Amino acid sequence: MVKQLAEEYIARGDPLGWHEELYRLAGGDPAVIPWADMKCNVNFLEWVQRCDLHSEGKTALVIGCGLGDDAEALARLNFEVTAFDISPTAIEWCRKRFPDSKVRYLVADLFEPGELLQRKYDFILEVYTLQVLPPNLQQRAMSCIAHFLTDGGTLLVITRGRDDEELHGSGMHWRLSHGDLNGFVKSGLREVSFEDYMDQEDPPVRRFRVEYSR
Ligand SMILES: C[S@@+](CC[C@H](N)C(=O)[O-])C[C@H]1O[C@@H](n2cnc3c(N)ncnc32)[C@H](O)[C@@H]1O
Question: How many folded domains does the chain comprise?
């Protein structure tokens, strides 16, 4: 159902519009949202547990935050967190779920970021947003994300992976290759680490977890 919805929107030239429609159709039921685990992303948690994240007095930005669990995890780590999503319904849902949250939740389009300040964020988390964008939008998306990062800051990207010669995918799953992700390097970032692994989903999904710095 979700793949079909995405394909319909893409066919009519609106590749971003299906997200809001999906969140609205869900009517508050997270079971309808395929990526809504209602807990912090395990691929992100694993990374956090083995790295030395300096959060005191630091700002963090969550791209396409969905229902907010990763943003809340960063707030618990003491970051000053801004989290945005293109879907007003998703952001309203975050505010309802976490009424006492310290996270600043915003409705914003990555491609027209408005009040999100350029080069302002010390840590940026991007989980599964690039992979829902058709390939013709991914390079521009990487450039937009890179511009949010402050000098010396860290960006962590978690996405579906593919080999360069494999097909991108379709509908709601547009896998990225290591070559595709070079868009971050072209936008002025340095690749610090690159992991290519099968995740813990059933069936397992090939993931790339990539850390960049400016
Ligand atoms: C696959 S979901 C992942 C959500 C969340 N990161 C997670 O892992 O649960 C992708 C999210 O990106 C949002 N999104 C898609 N295009 C966007 C854009 N141009 N700007 C901001 N958010 C966008 C969608 O509304 C959706 O919540």
Answer: 1
